[in-house]
Amino acid sequence: MSPAQHHHRRELIAGLRALAAFLDSNPQLPVPRYGPVRVSVHPLYDTDASTEAEAIAEVERIAALLGTTPTVQHGHHVTGVEFGSVRYQAVTITQAAMERRAALESYCDAITLDEIEGA
């Protein structure tokens, strides 16, 4: 781990602790009610992985460190662990999955709904 990566890691951990302490000392502030708060690692951006295959391998490596099994569904490679309502996860989405999504969304402007009077 480079000195810059180590510094960023320490800053992130300090920020998470500061947030927890702040929320603990300000009980009048709302917190998310539904679903976990996620800390997501994206190997192509957050690690030294530079190819899709390396990113998938990194998700698998992280899974081994966490003692979890990655799930693969529709080109999404995901592993994670939960701490109450907080989830740490690693995610890689394949290029093919992103292209399928882009193709699907390319039709979004092809259909328009008539305005419903009074709505």
UniProtKB/TrEMBL annotation:
Protein name: Uncharacterized protein
Species: Nonomuraea solani
